[in-house]
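Preliminary data (for renewal application), heme C complex.
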Amino acid sequence: MKSRASFVVSLVVLLLPGSVFAQSDPGIRTGAPAAGGPLGSVAADNPTTILAFFNDGKDRFEEVDSVSATIPGEDGFGLGPRYNSRSCAACHAFPATGGTSPAINPQITDATADGAVNVIPPFILLSGPVREARFIFFTDPLGNPIPSAPNGNVEALYTIAGRSDAGGCTAATIAQPDFTSAISHNNVIFRIPTPVFGAGLMENIDETTLLNYQAAASSNPFGIAGTFNRNGNDGTIARFGWKAQNKSLELFSGEAYNVEMGVSNEIFQNERPSPEEDRASGLANPCKINPTPEDHTNFNTTAIGTVSDAVQFAMFMRLLAPPARNKNEPGGASSINKGFELFEEIGCSVCHQINLGPDPMASRITPDLSNPAPNMFSDLEIHHMGTGLADNIAQGDAGGDQFRTAPLWGLGQRIFLLHDGRTSNLISAIQAHQSTGSEANAVKLNYDSLSAIDQQHILNFLRSL
Ligand code: HEC
Ligand code: HEC
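Predicted structure:
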């Protein structure tokens, strides 16, 4: 491999005297979104059955919520008291509904929508990415983190105070979290949305397939040894979220509806607590305006109308097709093929694996969910990624520096990269794999030792996904 690489370099230097080739991230692929539609077997189905559920789920995923659904153009119900944005699709937007952060951050508009009076925290920028914030530790009254009290909860950016539909909920009865203090004490970390294309295939992968792959990969020469984040009570393998902290799409839907939008539901029944409520001790919180759960099974309506939003969000995500690869762009087919070979040779694919092996788990929902998930480029394991990527938040079995191997499908149309969206550049994302304690250090050094042209092949391959 080495001699071939240096041969290519010297050839180019020979052909282009004076010019030195420098590799670069080709950037996002333009053109139509390579994702957003249903699985083939869903699209091919009788449109009044499963496809109708997909379309209805998508509509609900795109609905903008108000507190009481009395605002024209906003048809969802139950926003707040605290929220990060007003629809699932606001954050899961690019390159199509179900994706991740768009170029223009909707959280700027969210801050003051319908009369809300929120201060926009300094880490929320119009140029993105969409961010969710978590505090690492609980704090004392002066805002000092208490090292013996790990926190990790999502701190919603905004409140409904001031909105035209917020009734007696005002800035005097509910406050935004103190982000200024958290920033000054280095006590806040960020997460960007993960895309949900192909999520049903990830959900359906059998545990045997994952465990067999883990065993097969354990003899790798790069020192990589991933583990699984297991669900607390039943011990099965969890797979969703940056740390694989969440077991299923329905669970994630219920939790996201409550955490991101403040909509209580049958999976998460309680509005998120606020300190103001404690202070009011026993008095009704004027910011908790609706009876609970705000989203629930609707009785005596049409078949689809019966189902709650949380269940329909999950069904929409489950039936979404994975992103389609482009085998010619950028850089041409031979460069992309070469890039894939090198990606495997230097060890990226131990974690970002294209083929986890046969998957015996048939799905009763739709035939295409019985397929394995090729092209996901993830082992769904959590790996130690070192001090440079650590966010010091523990979730389930995942410690402060452990993250799920980010699935790379759809990477060709991703604007923001890594769990906190710190970069939009593939090269920086690869650099970030190396720091003290990272399982990817040896592989990253292999990458560094490639010629600029070989690195370019890998970058072209990544943007073809
Ligand atoms: C404010 C932006 C925001 C909104 C609104 C939002 N999400 Fe997310 N979503 C995120 C972030 C951030 C993550 C990553 C969370 C983590 O792992 O810490 C995420 C992750 C997910 C995942 C995990 C996918 C995977 O493979 O890791 C699912 C599923 C999901 N969201 C569903 C939903 C649904 C359903 C809604 C609407 C009820 C929703 N989200 C609303 C920001 C948002
Ligand atoms: C030890 C396992 C491991 C190896 C080896 C590895 N990665 Fe990763 N990769 C991860 C994890 C985990 C993340 C998510 C890290 C985070 O967001 O903090 C990630 C993230 C990425 C991302 C960003 C994806 C996103 O959704 O933002 C890219 C691009 C990437 N890896 C490419 C590569 C390439 C190229 C190689 C080989 C040079 C490689 N990786 C080797 C585990 C690995």
